[in-house]
Amino acid sequence: MPFVNDVTGILMLGNKTNLDTVVPPGHLPRTLISHSFDQLWAHYQREPGATWLVKPTDADAGADVYLLRPGSSNNRVLLQSMTGNTGVTELLTKGGLRGFGNRYCALQEYHPHTDEKRVILAAGRPVAQQLHRLAPDEHRGNTAHRVHCAETALTADEQQLCERIGRRLARHGIRFAGIDLAHPYVFEVNLVNPGGLDERVALGLPDRSPDILQALLDQARRDFSRDAPGDFPDEVPSDHPGDDPGGLQ
């Protein structure tokens, strides 16, 4: 049974732990993913003057995304909480619940920005995009958190970056995805719920659904007629010599 997005691709790429598989080097903020509070705290302390984000590796709509500002007494507590408060649990249970407390989270370098773009990829190419202007007192660019949405266009650099990511996703059977970016950085690649279709209509933006569906149908016909993953005959060489084309390790 063919799917728009390959199940294995969703399983392996549908969280923040494998973003570097599809996002080219230099376009991801510095990120450490761990379930160890000690490891995360040691990493944070190396640059106490920096601002960081901490967030779950597999959550949606900006849930539990916290800003760690320099000098805040909340920073240590948030990292403890986001990794399951294992120190407290082990103290109270003498290690009896070891293995149940640890949670993975991402500690990511924060790059201040006022605008993000949600870009919809279909069949490996950007087909729609909208501007998300963050609320003045927010660091999250999700529509659930009072962003102002508007129609927008991609710059030449953004277009090229999205096409590169689209080709990498296609190698893993992902034909429909959403990207959150503030160039040059990519913050999220959304595979399960890319959004941007009914949401655009609800916001009064042009309906791109017919273009997206047609692109997906055309690619599906090409893929399933030869019973192989999609290829892109017009793919160009990487603009970064030695750049890994992306693959699951």
From TrEMBL:
Regions of compositional bias (Basic and acidic residues) in chain numbering: 219-229
This protein's name: Prokaryotic glutathione synthetase ATP-binding domain-containing protein
Residue ranges constituting the Prokaryotic glutathione synthetase ATP-binding domain according to the UniProt record: 26-199
InterPro entries named in the record: ATP_grasp_subdomain_1 (IPR013815), GSHS_ATP-bd (IPR004218)
Gene Ontology molecular-function annotations: ATP binding; glutathione synthase activity
Superkingdom per UniProt: Bacteria
Region (Disordered): 219-249
Top-level taxonomy: Bacteria, Bacillati, Actinomycetota, Actinomycetes, Kitasatosporales
Residues annotated as transmembrane: none
